[in-house]
Amino acid sequence: MKSGRLIATLLIALPHIARAQGAPPPIPIDSAKAAFAEAKTLCSRDGGKLWGVSLCGPIMFVDAPSRSIVANEPDSKGVLAPKDGVFAGAMPADRNIANTAVEWSGRKWTQMLWPLPDDARLRATLIMHELFHRIQDRLGLPPRKDGDNAHLDELNGRYYMLLEWRALARALDARSDGERRGAAGDALSFRAERYRIYPAAADQEHGLEQNEGLAEYTGVRLGNPTAEMQKAMALRDLSAHARDATIVRSFAYATGPAYGLLLDRYAPGWRAQLRTGASFDAMLGRALGVTAGGESDRLVARAAKYDAAALHAAEAERDSKRQQQLALDRRKFVDGPVLTLRFRHKNVQFNPQTLQPLGDAGTVYPTIRVTDDWGVIEGKNGALMKPDWSALVVPAPASTEGSRIAGEGWTLELRPGWKIVPDARPGDYTLAPPE
Questions:
Q1: What is the DSSP string of 55-84?
Q2: Closest by CA position to 419, among listed 406, 400, 395
Q3: Are 94 and 2 in contact (CB under 8 A)?
Q4: Among candidate residues 361, 355, 383, 313, the one with its CA nearest the CA of residue 153
Q5: Residue 266 in contact with residue 287, Cβ under 8 Å?
């Protein structure tokens, strides 16, 4: 565990190191103050009405290259220094940076990457999405674990999800209640078929929808002042994420706002049902009187309304390329010699729009940064996360000497005393703690 003095040294030194390497300057104080004011206006406008809890609270903006912080409130340990009405400092190297809720220096923060989006609607949606994450554990929602949702990278899983999105978009944009109800029923049918093919999918998807889905719904509802703006942002989420290379971790950003806005219309009070573990599809199905599933004879006709033939052909071509990548990843992370970094107290930073499921072996993260008791690893050309998040696997290095180790697409900074040692399988390595 680091001493307070060491942390303070890092806070002072890191911004100067970053600037010497040509990183962007620290966050402009005036720009940060304007963003803090915008966040306060948005959450004050809601006044706690949406969730029964105010979303206002401690916010920190962090510039990743320089690790500079500007916060709207002081931290509890006095690490951040007052500066022109806000509080400034730097994030220690052993902490990851992301849009998330984070416990740091004695407080729970909404952490957001700087700069924020230039587009006013995207910026407001992001702000309210992230403010939700800080308070979501106070809402009494049942504990749920995000599944890996690997089925959404398979042909049928992705195909039926994209069909569902097309139906949800038609429902949101419908001009009559009959059209809206019909399209919503189609969306529920496509989801039911996906759950029939993949029996574990319902529980896995619900976990991420309760997390990121509710957060993005909150961002859309509270970051956009009119119903038309909210609909436009929900439609944007559906179309934008359809272009993601993989949707296993990003699908809930699309389904959350769409289902949430439909539930606002057809099932007022639905948010209270979340405490019982109710899912989006179950609540909307009850509200519409729709029992999805058991209608395979009608499924083809439903799908045809959404240009299903062209969609399926495109997805089949994508899946063919995916199979080739899976073979390469398996040789790299399963069959070949590897270094396994077992976690103790991990902190993980990654891009959720680029993940590549690798079956029972886990999920390949094209870019990832992990800090743990043993040090910091940065992967820029793929690393395999075990299915239970117990360890990270990378190709074995050519040399295991020293405290800074490099391999194919990754670098590892080891803490003093830690070293790389042979693992059980010949040619494999793992980490050993100080003796």
A1: ----EEEEETTTTEEEESS--TTS-SEEET
A2: 400
A3: yes
A4: 355
A5: yes
Q: Around 331, how many Cα atoms within 13 Å sit in the side-chain half-sphere?
A: 5
User: CB of 284 within 8 A of CB of 261?
Assistant: no
Per-residue pLDDT tens over the stretch 328-345? 999 999 999 999 999 999
Which residues have CB under 8 Å from 150's CB, separation 6+?
248, 357, 359, 363
In sequence order, which ranges of 81-176 are alpha helices (DSSP H)?
120-135, 155-172
Q: What is the DSSP string of 282-322?
A: HHHHHHHT---SS-HHHHHHHHHTTTHHHHHHHHHHHHHHH
Both tokens of 246, joined, read: 């993989």
pTM of the entire structure?
Answer: 0.86
Question: Tens digits of per-residue pLDDT, 141-152?
Answer: 998 877 789 999
- How far apart (Å, rounded) are the C-alpha atoms in residues 370 and 352? 15
Residue 153 phi, psi dihedral angles, 5° rounding: -100, -5
SS3 category, 113: strand
What 3-state DSSP class applies to 327?
helix
